[in-house]
């Protein structure tokens, strides 16, 4: 239960901010109740405005992979802030961060920094259209790539939660340029390309979708996207805003390479971890494509705060700590949380399924999820939202902050230590009992 204080704050917020939140997924609409207003965070813990401490499994929706307010990240940001908040001119730190990304993700030769994942995917699409001279874009139902017009069609995340096919305010003429295919459906993708392949500029995909809950890509699915796009002269955009530097120390592309899958997208987008909690995202790819961007090429893209010095400082400090050892740590944390949840739900007889890619996971509730894997948006929408709602509130009461939607991943960090994991274990049992009622 949120405290009275939070309720008052929420009432004030709703008077001056639509729905009281700066981003819809922060509202507790899908689960009911008043969202917690957070005041501070450290390691695995957050403290709300009424002073209650909870173990956090939102993790700022991905960036907080080292845990909140990691001392060395905070020190890097403080040091950068002491020099300048923003220049609007090139900096050495941008070069350092770009070099770090290029060194880590081999197909990326150049990167362009932006402030949000939305800008990264929007720019990647513009680049793909310019490179191919084609207009159509293909996305998968339930994947979320930010809130630009072309991508708010059959999107996941907040739109999935609201059960809307698309956003109001997107002109039909723009939505008509985005073609939607069910996730994990190679036949549907092939059929679409057979019909309209010569008009398609790109396929954009979350290589491991995490905005309709976590969906495991079928073995060879990403490689099939690569094969089909290449055969028709279209580009493949791997949107690793969420999976980048989380599914492995490079991302989902790197994780699949290690597993022996060989596919290389034309463009990558990154965000979240790459900015270490500050507003920073990027798109990257081979030099010949990236140099279509202004000022070298004809594709315009710009940003007053792009490559901001505080954000690049946080990005460098974070990314340089994201290595194989850190991945082992967060994989173990994910093992512990998923084991706790699975054991508790099994013991309480609640049908469910844990789906996981690397350390990224979510839990689907309901008979259908209990019986077979959730493979696409249609499956994801069949989950038992009432069970999730009961689970969410009991877990919250037991001191663990979960994403307030059944369509979001749970985010763990390297700072989730034994003490935090014990609290989670108890909370999972309380949640399971509530979901069973
Ligand atoms: N792409 C993916 C895969 C995402 O998960 C998100 C955000 O959750 C975005 C793009 C948009 O990023 P941002 O919220 O920074 O605009």
UniProtKB/TrEMBL annotation:
The modification N6-(pyridoxal phosphate)lysine is found at residue 272. It catalyses: (S)-4-amino-5-oxopentanoate = 5-aminolevulinate. This is Glutamate-1-semialdehyde 2,1-aminomutase. GO terms for molecular function: glutamate-1-semialdehyde 2,1-aminomutase activity. It comes from Brooklawnia cerclae. The gene is hemL. The keyword Isomerase applies. Its cofactor is pyridoxal 5'-phosphate. Pathway: Porphyrin-containing compound metabolism; protoporphyrin-IX biosynthesis; 5-aminolevulinate from L-glutamyl-tRNA(Glu): step 2/2. It holds the Pfam family Aminotran_3. Its EC number is 5.4.3.8.
């Amino acid at each position: 239960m949120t405290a009275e204080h939070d309720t008052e704050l929420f009432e004030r917020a709703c008077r001056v901010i639509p729905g009281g939140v700066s981003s819809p997924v922060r509202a507790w609409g899908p689960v009911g109740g008043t969202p917690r207003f957070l005041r501070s965070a450290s390691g695995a813990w957050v403290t709300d405005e009424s002073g209650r401490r909870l173990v956090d499994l939102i993790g700022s929706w991905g960036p907080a992979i080292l845990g909140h307010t990691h001392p060395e990240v905070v020190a890097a940001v403080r040091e950068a802030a002491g020099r300048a908040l923003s220049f609007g001119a090139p900096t050495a730190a941008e070069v350092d961060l770009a070099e770090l990304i290029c060194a880590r993700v081999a197909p990326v030769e150049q990167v362009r920094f932006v402030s949000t994942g939305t800008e990264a995917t929007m720019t990647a699409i513009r680049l793909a259209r310019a490179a191919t001279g084609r207009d159509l874009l293909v996305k998968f139902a339930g994947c979320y790539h930010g809130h630009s017009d072309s991508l708010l069609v059959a999107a996941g995340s907040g739109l999935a939660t609201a059960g809307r096919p698309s956003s109001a305010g997107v002109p039909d003429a723009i939505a008509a340029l985005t073609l939607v295919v069910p996730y994990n459906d190679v036949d549907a993708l092939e059929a679409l390309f057979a019909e309209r392949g010569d008009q398609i500029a790109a396929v954009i995909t979350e290589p491991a979708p995490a905005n309709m809950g976590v969906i495991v890509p079928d073995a060879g699915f990403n490689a099939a996207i690569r094969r089909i796009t290449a055969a028709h002269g279209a580009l493949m955009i791997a949107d690793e805003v969420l999976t980048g530097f989380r599914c492995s120390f490079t991302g989902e592309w790197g994780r699949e390479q290690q597993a022996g899958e060989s596919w290389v997208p034309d463009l990558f987008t990154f965000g979240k971890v790459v900015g270490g909690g500050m507003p920073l995202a990027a798109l990257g790819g081979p030099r010949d494509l990236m140099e279509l961007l202004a000022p070298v090429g004809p594709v315009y893209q710009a940003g007053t705060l792009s490559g901001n010095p505080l954000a690049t400082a946080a990005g460098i400090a974070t990314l340089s700590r994201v290595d194989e050892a850190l991945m082992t740590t967060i994989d173990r944390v994910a093992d512990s949380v998923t084991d706790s949840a699975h054991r508790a739900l099994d013991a309480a007889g609640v049908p469910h399924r844990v789906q996981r890619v690397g350390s990224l996971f979510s839990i689907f509730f309901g008979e259908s999820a209990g019986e077979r894997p959730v493979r696409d948006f249609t499956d994801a929408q069949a989950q038992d939202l009432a069970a999730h709602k009961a689970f969410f509130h009991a877990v919250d009461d037991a001191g663990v902050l979960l994403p307030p939607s059944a369509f979001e991943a749970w985010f763990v960090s390297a700072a989730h230590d034994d003490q935090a994991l014990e609290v989670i274990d108890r909370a999972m049992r309380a949640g399971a009992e509530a979901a069973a009622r």
